[in-house]
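Table S2 (text version). Query chain:
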Amino acid sequence: MSQALVKIRTLDRIDMNILETLQREGRISNVELARRVNLSASPCIDRVKRLEQEGYIERYGALLNASRLGFGTTVFIQITLDNTTSDVFDRFKNDVLNIPHVVECHMVAGGFDYLLKLRLPNMDAYRTILAQIVDLPGVIKNHTYVVIEQVKQDEGLPLKANEQL
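Corresponding structure-token output:
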């Protein structure tokens, strides 16, 4: 179903506090989560299950240290396609989904079509993966930006900041 057609539920303060806490501490026990959001354990777990079922919580996971695991090189690649038709977009999307080192792919508006984020062991690996990407059907131009220093990392949605807007 289209995002535009999905009815968005208004979340109350407790739901928002649950989401904020789980986003930062996914392994927190239900008892501790309930204590922090001022609920008893049973209604708290019911709310978490509802938030999961309604799609507010997509998954749980661990934030891994990329450098320690041999993925210390991060690059962003702007991709321009030869045509902006749905079949070209679909083909590119399907092809890029099969390249494991592409950890994010965003269709964007502006001077190019896609922005890719790659996590790699080194520049030799980058060169190998770049060859795969530029050979994808429809790709006519690319620009690469190598990350020198990560200043800020995605730490989840700024739920509390959104309340201040």
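Notes on Table S2: The radius of gyration is 20 Å. The mean pLDDT is 93.
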